[in-house]
């Protein structure tokens, strides 16, 4: 039994990583305040590392969307998987060609397109969707601030046809483009 209201507990859970980073920054300042040739540089280095952690923690927190969307997101060995009640599938990060944020039936979805044209649609509010931030951040050339701006911005026009499971590569793109893989040289 929890002594906290569910809203307060959710707020504390959401802010736990930024709070831990802030505590690490405070500890680093305390270490630097001990003075001397050893503790001042060590405290400064620890503060810089903790500040970097705080920036990443705040971005992760902004990325995590609360929502009761159906399905479960898995991230395992370079593959993103979505297991939903109506559709699902897996996409390898190495095969990912395009990332879009689309609106499907009034709900935001990540639209992941592979190099062979297959598309996986993942609701933003699905359970475990917060793990996608680290996976998306590993994509070459992806700007995480653009990713976060797309999430906090207004919703785009809906995708025609409802749930997108698989499209040919010639299908008209819809939604907000977040990232596209840079062209690869083809050797013949």
CATH-defined topology of the largest domain: PH-domain like
Structural class, from secondary structure content?
alpha+beta
Question: How many domain regions?
Answer: 2
How many individual β-strands?
A: 8
What gross morphology would you assign? globular
| Share of residues in strands | 25-35%
CATH architecture designation of the largest domain = Roll
Radius of gyration: 20 Å
- The portion of residues assigned to helices is 25-40%
- Spell the H/E element sequence: HHHEEEEEEEHHE
Total helical segments: 5
Termini, distance in Å? 65 Å
Report the top-level CATH class of the largest domain: Mainly Beta
How are the strands ordered across the major sheet? 3-2-1-7
Low-confidence stretches: 157-172
Integer average pLDDT: 85
Summarize the main sheet: 4 strands, mixed
Keywords: Membrane, Transmembrane, Transmembrane helix
Transmembrane segments: 38-58
What would you say this structure looks like, in words?
With 188 residues, the chain is an alpha+beta fold. 37% of the residues lie in helices and 25% in strands. It has 5 helices and 8 strands. The strands form 2 sheets. A 4-stranded mixed beta sheet has the order 3-2-1-7, with no helix packed on it. Strands 6-5-4-8 form a 4-stranded antiparallel beta sheet, with helices on one face. A hairpin with a 2-residue loop joins strand 1 and strand 2 (79-83). The relative contact order is 0.14. Residues 157-172 have low confidence and may be disordered. Keywords: Membrane, Transmembrane, Transmembrane helix.
């Amino acid at each position: 039994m929890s002594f906290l209201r569910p809203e307060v507990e959710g707020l504390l859970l959401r802010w736990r990583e930024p709070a831990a980073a802030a505590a690490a920054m405070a500890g680093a300042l305390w270490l630097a305040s001990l003075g001397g040739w050893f503790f001042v540089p060590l405290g400064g280095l620890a503060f810089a590392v903790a500040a970097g952690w705080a920036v990443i923690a705040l971005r992760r927190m902004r990325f995590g969307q609360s929502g009761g969307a159906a399905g479960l997101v898995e991230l395992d060995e370079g593959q993103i998987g979505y297991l939903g009640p109506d559709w699902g599938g897996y996409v390898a990060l190495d095969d990912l060609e395009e990332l879009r944020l689309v609106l499907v039936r009034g709900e935001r979805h990540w639209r992941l397109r592979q190099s062979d044209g297959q598309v996986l649609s993942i609701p933003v509010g699905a359970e475990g969707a917060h793990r996608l931030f680290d996976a998306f951040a590993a994509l070459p050339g992806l700007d995480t601030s653009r990713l976060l701006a797309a999430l906090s911005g207004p919703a785009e026009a809906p995708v025609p046809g409802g749930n997108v499971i698989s499209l040919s590569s010639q299908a008209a793109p819809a939604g907000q483009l977040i990232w596209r893989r840079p062209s690869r040289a083809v050797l013949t």
